[in-house]
Amino acid sequence: MNLTVHCILDRKMIIYPDGDGSEDGCDHISVYLAIAETSSLQAGWEVNATFSFLIFDQIHDKYLVMRGMEQRFHNIKSEWGFPNYISHETFRKPSKGYLVNDKCVFGVDIYVIKNRGVGECVSLLDESESYKHEWKISEFTKLKSVLCSEEFTVGAYKWKLKLYPTGDSSQNGRSISIFLESVDAKGFDFRKRVQAKYSISVNNQITGAHHKITFFPRAATSSWFAAASCTWGWRRFMRLSELKDPNKGFLVGDCCIMEADVSVLGVVNDLT
Questions:
Q1: How many angstroms from the chain centroid is the CA of residue 223?
Q2: Is 4 exposed, middle or buried (0-12, 13-18, 19+ CB in 10 A)?
Q3: Kind plus residue range of the DSSP H or E element containing 89
Q4: pLDDT at residue 271 in the model
Q5: What tens digit of pLDDT does each residue of 71-97 get?
Q6: What pTM was estimated for this model as a whole?
Q7: What whole-number distance in Å separates Cα of residue 51 and Cα of residue 35?
Q8: Checking phi first, is residue 254 left (phi over 0); if not, alpha (psi -120 to 50) or beta?
Q9: What is the CA angle 99-15-198, rounded to 5?
């Protein structure tokens, strides 16, 4: 189901109560921010905005910021959001206060980044210059909180992997969550961004095979690492039951081996 619930200027917030139909949206509520009316806009229009999705805790009478990002809206990509905004299980927990008397309140906080009339310098790099980083994690089943790998350098920028061994807040211990983070991006100005293509895999220590996912979306802007979006990855990367299955070979001697294959495709800077 597609429901428009909130409008601010020329934008709308869209909620899919039963997920947006994607694999990531399964058993989750999906939320998106979209340009409400594009037919009247001039060709080549674009809007840069930082926005956060909110959900109201009716027990403690306060809004909670659940997810945020910075993106560029344009005629090719006029909608951004999260397919796995919040799981149905978390949303329906009485103690959370999100659903009370079958009523809930969602919101979105938007900050439009005004065009300062400054040009951009785009540097396209050689995609073939990729780097593989192996991360060996011991005593995996004893891990309780988020774990970060050592930093590694690709394309003159520092990166690291961030692992949630029992999943982030949306997974409730069902899957592991893993992300690639640009260490430098937090210090970027609002125009600077780095585009990366990457895959993350868990090695099968018996057969040598990989559980592998590659991230390279159709819209190139969604693969750009910036100050407001320095981390990209998968909340439902791999089910814990599959990882721990002794016949699979992913966890041997309570040790698993993860590998990131990263290449930097381009960099955008202010043209000064």
A1: 10
A2: exposed
A3: helix 88-92
A4: 53
A5: 878 777 888 888 889 999 999 999 999
A6: 0.59
A7: 13
A8: left
A9: 115
